[in-house]
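lol forgot to send this yesterday, sorry. struct tokens for the thing we talked abt
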């Protein structure tokens, strides 16, 4: 049983493998977080709606349904609840499928406890900061985006970005700490009636990362990109 304070963040652990669930719970307990364990998709969907957790840690191989169905159901009422998939499925197709369905992050088993807790901390920071899309400016370390003016600055100096670089940057900033797949970026940055391709995306992203600082945007090989918050 967790000794976490009643107002500590609640993590919903959706895992039917008892030893793994115990390991995850012990890790969360060590950081003073509350947790609730669910072993089926149906139980997880009900608990997510009833308990309003701050983070969901979700296995995909559940006994009654694929975990992606949990992602889809949760996304029908919440766009902001962080969902971290923790799965033994390591193929890029599985990662992309989960992320495209609405998951925020993907961790492959076996995992280190330290990495798991780091992913949870990132998710909790995202919740604490709220949704950046509702603000007129975005700040991340030395990077500032003035959405109204369409101006980007780094360390106070204005950056000269191409229209496509700016659109990609805005997508990443509005989804900070969330992995955006290549397909998502191609569909949303290029827009309807325009054609983008993976090679062009990689070239543009390389240029953008060079301008804003490569440490702000992580490359998830074979999957996509994620803007992280500066420490």
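and heres what i got for the seq, position by position
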């Amino acid at each position: 049983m967790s000794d976490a304070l009643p107002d500590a963040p609640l993590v919903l652990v959706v895992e039917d493998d008892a030893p793994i669930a115990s390991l995850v719970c012990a890790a969360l307990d060590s950081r003073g977080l509350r947790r609730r364990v669910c072993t089926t998709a149906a139980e997880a969907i009900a608990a997510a709606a009833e308990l309003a957790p701050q983070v969901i840690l979700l296995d995909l191989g559940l006994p009654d349904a694929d975990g992606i169905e949990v992602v889809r159901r949760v996304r029908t009422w919440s766009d902001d609840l962080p969902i971290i998939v923790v799965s033994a499925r390591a193929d890029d197709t599985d990662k992309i499928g989960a992320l495209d369905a609405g998951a925020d992050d993907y961790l492959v088993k076996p995992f280190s406890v330290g990495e798991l807790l780091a992913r949870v901390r990132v998710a909790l920071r995202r919740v604490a900061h709220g949704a950046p899309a509702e603000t007129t400016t975005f700040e991340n370390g030395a990077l500032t985006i003035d959405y109204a003016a369409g101006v980007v600055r780094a360390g106070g100096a204005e950056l000269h970005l191409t229209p496509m670089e700016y659109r990609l940057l805005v997508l990443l900033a509005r989804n900070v700490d969330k992995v955006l797949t290549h397909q998502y970026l191609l569909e949303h940055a290029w827009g309807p009636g325009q054609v983008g391709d993976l090679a062009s995306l990689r070239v543009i992203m390389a240029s953008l990362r060079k301008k804003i600082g490569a440490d702000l945007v992580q490359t998830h090989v074979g999957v996509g990109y994620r803007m992280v918050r500066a420490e």
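The longest strand covers residues 10-14. anyway ping me if u want another try
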